[in-house]
Amino acid sequence: MPGGIPLYFKKFTVLLLVFCLTLSLWGCGSNASGETTQPEPSVVPETTFSPAEISTPTSQTVPGESPALPAELAAYDQVFQGTRAITRAASDEVIPLSKISLFFTVDELPWGIAQLAVLDLDSDGTLEAVLEVENYAGYVILTYRDGAVLGTEVWYRAFQELKADGSFQGSGSSVNRYYWRYHPEGNILLAECYEEENNPPYYSIGGEAATPEAFAAFEEAQTAKPAATWFPSWQDFLASR
Known about the structure:
By secondary structure, this protein is an alpha+beta fold. Helices cover 24% and strands 25% of the residues. The chain has 5 helices and 11 strands. The strands form 2 sheets. A 6-stranded mixed sheet has the order 2-1-6-5-4-3, with helices on one face. β4 and β5 form a beta hairpin. The relative contact order is 0.10.
């Protein structure tokens, strides 16, 4: 109709009014107090750490892992594993443990370790390993020096009743007894006696002549010392640490 409002404009105006009214009603009904309800944020649990857990990491022993061995024990362990040889102190021969019989004979023969002890024989702060070698009535003493494992053989009769302090008894004959402390460069004589028939007995302590009573007191004190601890094998020793 000329001069009138177009019909499509009237429809558009009505729709706009309905839309505004709907928005107004939705705003009032959602919150009677006039506040708009916001969705609750997700709650993340707070993680706390003790001071030790946030400090600088340090090396720790892994559960089930053996502690590191001292240098000499690590070297002896390599000897038993067959990855390190023994230098024979008397001749500088290099001998693997598998040929330890060469310490006692010129032939390579079957052998075994009857038992072993690990202790500081010469009181220098480094442990020695004493191996009692089966079939040869003797011992091989392992000493760690300057990065090498030295081996010294000792015959059974000369190395008896080993004590925890490294002292031991020996016998040169049925009438002779002596007591030593091991040293790789030569054992230290602690006391000695000769009690030969038809000859006057002789006693000494620390290189000085002694009375029978003084020597008897020395032997009594020596006997009372704690004995060295022996193990059936190297692995048994490691397991005891």
